[in-house]
Every structure is written in structure tokens, then in C-alpha cells.
Design goal:
The protein is of the alpha/beta class. Helix content is 36%, strand content 23%. Helix 4 packs antiparallel against helix 8. The longest helix has 22 residues. Bound molecules: S-adenosyl-L-homocysteine (SAH). The site of S-adenosyl-L-homocysteine has 16 residues, from loops. The site of S-adenosyl-L-homocysteine (SAH) has 16 residues, from loops.
Length: 465
């Protein structure tokens, strides 16, 4: 089984950085079901191609399974070593796991940037027909090319096999491409080599975040990914529908909400936003930066208040900026509103003249996404070069995590968090920075404060002295 990934983004050899695999080396990884090899048949500056070759060990597979397998002949004659299946998903997550998470120390920006990519699968079993192949990949922005193989070239009368060589092409981030393959490849296959349990629902929802809820084939994807186990499928579907409804509701104007909505308890997100807005208002700030603005929820609120004359949202993720632009209906804003607001693509760890000259900056739930060695660069960019009068910064309070029933003890709240601070750790960091750059800092809780563990979110308000 062979997965080939190519790009003609230039310099194309950056693919090696993105995949965290050196183009000059042939590397082998031992996996539970065999071996995975990574190598580059082509490493030009104009085009670069990486291959992931899976060497599934059919004998080991039979031994490990023992008597479980009921179909005896299947032990000797099966397609497992040759087709793209859930084995490929496991290999992607183990061999290209960091790339799939969108992390790249050497090219952090590029990891978040959509680039022209193609992926070729040799071979994918497509029993539901070629149309299904198109219906799955095309809504995600790929073009699909498929060639069906005959069952046996020597006996054409036997007809066609379900096996296809498939190439998908699109301008996506590498992380998106790998995530789409991770979720969708097993959807085509009838078998799944590992047990489908509750955590599969979690995996599907986590990897499907941001795209699966809106996918027109969402139901079929969830059903097949969860191998037709109806209870799990219903659970996943209910949560996907919920996600879609939340997104749709967020897109609607808030002032049409019925009265009783106002009495509903506010979500932590809303409380955080309210707290940040209150600080910005109280500081009398007119020119505001929202650094790591994400999908633009705070920007949307800022736009409603005339006090804020100039509002700039910055994010390293193009996808987040596109969503923000959609949320704000930026293209349709009246010119006066549009002039107040700007979305810029940039990173908080590089000095950038566009972020100088503002009264205040909000940095809401962003620092925990930065690699700790980059914090020093972020600190200088914000407090030394941009130097706004006020900085409002929020971050999770790790102590509070024990109260989150669904969060395992050793996990962070989001898979992209590089760290989460206790209150003492956050205060230490903030005090040091304030002292170094001539700011004062005070700390405020956000969300319900718990006696021993404090609030779920911690906020620091820095003021230039
Ligand atoms: N402030 C938003 C989004 C928080 S999620 C909110 O509260 O809803 C964190 C955001 O930080 C993401 O959108 C991510 O793309 C962005 N981000 C991560 N690293 C960044 C960097 N180096 N520069 C700018 N933005 C970054």
C-alpha cells in the first residue's frame, strides 16, 4: 500500500519540513501491524514528492488475532497488505502525527498555509461506486481522479475489481490533507482492524472538527467510519448536528434572540468575551488589536460598539481568517463599517510594523498555542515593539481541569495546546514581563470561581505605566 504526497509549492523541498521527515533519508517505523517506510522519490525545488509505503505483515496479523477470525480462508487470502484501509490512518497518525496536527517548528507559518498538494492512493477499495469517491472529496475542495483496476488483467472476462488508484488534488494545508485522509480512507473500506468503541466517536469528532458537520455526506461518513454500529453512529450524529446548529446560530444576528435566551447561563466563551470587552471599554481604548482572533467572535462584538474606531484582527491561520470574514459578512459590510475593520495574516512571534500604534490588544486563549521556546519572541513583539497601552490576555487555568468530568487528568483542553498554566505559573510569567517592559499587571478571574482550584479561565490586564 502506497500513499504519495506531492507539492509544487516553492521551494517544494519545504515538504520535508512540514512532514518532519528529511528528504535525503529513507526511514522505517515499526508499527503494530508491520512497518512503514518514508522516502522521497523526487526532491526538486519545483516539485517534491514523499511516499509512505506500508508493509503490512499478514502472518503476524493472523497470529495476533488467534482464534477470533471466523473466516478461515481470509487468513490466507486477503487484501489487507495492498489496500488503503484503517492501517493507513494509524500509520498517518503515528508517522506524520505532528504534521497532521499542523505543527512545524521550522516552518510554522507554512504549516498553516494552504498550498497546492496532491495525494495518490495505491489502491483504495471503493465498493460504493466511483460517485461516492467524488461526493466525499469534492466538497472538501479536491479534484478527484480515479482509475479502476480489473480483477485480473489476464482474465478480463472476470470484470472490474473494487480497487482504484486515486489521486486527489487541492490547495489545502498539509494538516488538512492528512486529516481528511485519516478520516475518509477507512470510510471506503468494509473492514476495520481495530475495535470500534466509544473513543472512536471522540476521534471522529476531534478529527472532523470544523469540516465534518457541514459535509453533505456527513451521515454516511459517520456511519461507515463507525462501522455501522448504530448506537455509536447515532451518538456521533447527534453531536455533529448539535455542532452545526451552534455554528448556524452563531451566524445569526444576536439581537433577534428570544427573551428567554437572555436568561440562559452564559457559556464560558461568552463570559470570557464579556470580560475582555469590559476591560477594553473601561480602558477607553479606540484602536484595538485582536491577536490570534480566530474565527472573529470578539471582532463581531467590537464592531457593534462605536467607541472602537479601528479594529484589527490578526491570525496565523488563513482558514480562521476566512471564517472570520464570513462571520462578519465582511464583503457586505457598509463601507463605513468596513473601514473600521481589517483582518491581517501574520504571526505573533515575528516583529510586524502593522501591529504598532494601538491603544489596546486582546490576546484571548492564544499563548497556550505557542511553543514555550517562542514565548520570548512573542513577549518582545507585543510588549516591546507593538507596545499598546493596554493588553488583555486570557489563558486556561490548568488547576481547574480536574473539575472537567470529560477531560482525562493528563490532557489539555485542546489538542493544539502546548501547555496550560496554573495560576502561580501564569502570575509569575506575567509579573516578570510587566516588570521588564514597564507595565503594571492585575489578574481577574473569568467564569465560576472554585474555592480550591480557582476559575476556569485566568485573565491578566497589563497597563503601560
Ligand atoms: N481568540 C480567539 C481564538 C483562540 S484559538 C477566541 O478566543 O475565540 C487560538 C488562535 O490563535 C487560533 O486561531 C490560532 O490560529 C491562533 N494562533 C496560534 N498561533 C499563532 C501565532 N503564532 N500568531 C498568530 N495567531 C496564532
Amino acid at each position: 500500500m502506497l500513499l504519495t504526497i506531492s507539492t509544487d509549492y516553492q521551494p517544494a523541498t519545504d515538504l520535508g519540513f512540514l512532514l518532519h521527515k528529511h528528504p535525503d533519508r529513507f526511514q522505517t517505523f515499526n508499527l503494530s501491524f508491520g512497518q512503514a517506510h518514508v522516502f522521497y522519490p523526487e526532491t526538486g525545488a519545483e516539485c517534491c514528492t514523499a511516499c509512505l509505503l506500508l508493509d503490512v505483515d499478514p502472518v503476524g496479523m493472523v497470529r495476533r488475532r488467534g482464534r477470533e477470525q471466523s473466516f478461515l480462508l481470509g487468513q490466507y487470502v486477503n487484501d489487507r497488505p495492498y489496500v488503503a484501509s484503517s492501517f493507513l490512518s494509524v500509520a498517518i497518525s503515528q508517522v506524520f502525527g505532528t504534521a497532521m496536527l499542523g505543527r512545524c517548528k521550522d516552518r510554522p507559518e507554512l504549516a498553516q498555509t494552504p498550498i497546492p498538494l496532491s495525494a495518490r492512493l495505491e489502491v483504495l477499495p471503493v465498493r460504493a461506486g466511483e460517485g461516492f469517491l467524488h461526493r466525499l472529496f469534492e466538497p472538501l475542495g479536491y479534484t478527484v481522479e480515479a482509475r479502476r483496476h480489473p480483477l485480473d488483467e489476464r482474465f478480463p472476462e472476470w470484470g472490474e475489481s473494487p480497487y482504484h488508484s486515486v489521486t486527489i488534488r487541492g490547495t489545502r494545508t498539509l494538516s488538512e490533507l492528512l486529516t481528511h485522509l485519516y478520516v475518509l480512507v477507512p470510510v471506503f473500506d468494509n473492514e476495520k482492524h481495530y475495535f470500534v468503541g466509544e473513543d472512536e466517536v471522540e476521534k471522529l469528532l476531534a478529527k472532523g472538527a470544523g469540516w465534518l458537520a457541514q459535509h453533505p455526506e456527513r451521515d454516511a461518513i459517520a456511519r461507515r467510519y463507525l462501522r455501522h454500529r448504530s448506537a455509536l453512529y447515532r451518538q456521533a450524529l447527534a453531536r455533529l448536528v448539535e455542532e452545526e446548529q451552534i455554528e448556524a446560530a452563531e451566524d445569526e444576528s444576536t439581537d433577534r434572540q428570544p427573551e428567554d435566551m437572555l436568561e440562559k447561563p452564559l457559556s464560558l466563551n461568552e463570559q470570557r468575551q464579556g470580560a475582555v470587552l469590559a476591560v477594553l471599554r473601561a480602558a477607553g481604548a479606540r484602536r484595538i488589536l485582536d491577536l490570534g482572533c480566530g474565527e472573529g467572535k470578539l471582532l463581531q462584538e467590537l464592531l457593534k460598539e462605536p467607541q472602537f474606531e479601528r479594529i484589527v484582527g490578526m491570525d496565523v491561520s488563513m482558514q480562521a481568517l476566512q471564517r472570520a470574514s464570513r462571520r462578519l459578512a465582511y464583503e457586505r459590510l457598509p463601507p463605513i463599517q468596513r473601514e473600521r475593520m481589517e483582518l491581517i495574516h501574520g504571526s505573533l512571534i515575528y516583529r510586524d510594523s502593522r501591529v504598532a500604534g494601538f491603544d489596546a490588544a486582546a490576546v484571548v486563549e492564544v499563548v497556550e498555542h505557542l511553543d514555550p521556546p517562542r514565548l520570548a519572541a512573542f513577549e518582545r513583539v507585543l510588549f516591546e515593539f507593538a507596545r499598546p497601552g493596554t493588553v488583555v490576555l486570557t489563558t486556561p487555568n490548568r488547576e481547574y481541569n480536574v473539575l472537567w468530568e470529560t477531560l482525562p487528568a493528563d490532557r489539555f483542553r485542546h489538542s493544539d495546546h502546548r501547555f496550560e498554566w496554573t495560576r502561580a505559573e501564569f502570575h509569575d510569567w506575567a509579573d516578570r514581563i510587566a516588570a521588564r517592559h514597564g507595565y503594571s499587571v492585575r489578574f481577574l478571574p473569568v467564569g465560576p470561581e472554585e474555592e480550591r482550584f480557582g476559575p476556569p479561565t485566568q485573565m491578566g490586564v497589563f497597563a503601560l505605566e
